[in-house]
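Fold Annotation — chain and its backbone

Fields — amino acid sequence, structure tokens

___
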Amino acid sequence: MPSSEEQLNKLADSAKKNNDITEKIVERSVTFSQVWFTLVAPVVIGVSATLLTSENSDKASKLTEVLLYTGGICFILIHFFLTYVSHQYSKKESLYAGIVEMKRKKEEEVSELRSALAQTKLALRKIADLYSNQISSVYLSAHATDVAIGDLKKLEDCEESTNENDFWKKLTSSLDPILQPLVIEREALFGFKSEGKYNIALYFYDPDNEDLAIVWRDCDSRLPQRNRSWKAGHGHVGLAFLHKETKICPDITMSNELNPSYTNSDSSNYRSFISIPILRCDDDGELENNIKPLGVLVLTSAQPEQFIKERDLQFLTIISKHLGIYLSAIETFLAHNTLIENKE
């Protein structure tokens, strides 16, 4: 069965053929009418007028008068007929031109459809790539968490006491493989560019000092590393901890939640951020249960609108669950083991 495009082409060819035949017939008719109006009619009118107004017209035979009147009637009928043909020709529409216009519109629609299809295909490819990168990062993070907890178990089973410095170095080295997928795949996962000045940090809550201290960080080399601590409710780190909810800010210069002094001083390097509280396994996220989070995972960028809730929230929440499992194991280890203080 021929396609719609082949049928349209066939119809266009037939319409063109019919249009050519019609054009020839009408062209000849119009040519004859023009000759009639410009040549024959004036001659007939002139001859008839001459015969009717001549001196011998009163002596003309009856036959001549009949012929003149009959010719005049025929002349008038022919004249009216040719006028009608010319008038109809001026109003005619070309079927072929209509089909050509229809074909042009159809080609435009097909072109627009192809363009939309290409854009959709590209968007689906980007989504598939993002999903693939997220799945791979989650898998690597989960595997690294499992290995880190295993290493912590071995350390606990060891009869020798653990030095405080060695323990925190071990903690940092174990956090590296859990969080490194976020660093390595930052462009694919979050769309980071060079001007974004990425910053990824993990804060662990210290109940003795009642603040959030940084335990791991990876960032752009152009960023100054002050590694400051945060109190609950201070800055986006402290707010995420206090409210036990993710804080996403597309532009801190337009934030009504952060302290203006913070936004003015840090906006050149920290323009947008996402802060995810790391909840304990038995924490349902309700403020009334008085269970404090283990810490906060923070990602910042020097560019506005770097992070998108629909794209990033679920993925980073899963990563925070891995961190929650590991930090809970760390907390349990510290509760049952005494670290040897560093010798000066």
In short: The helical segments are 4-53, 62-91, 95-157, 164-184, 186-190, 235-243, 260-266, 309-336. The CA atoms of residues 27 and 107 lie 32 Å apart. The chain has a mean pLDDT of 82.
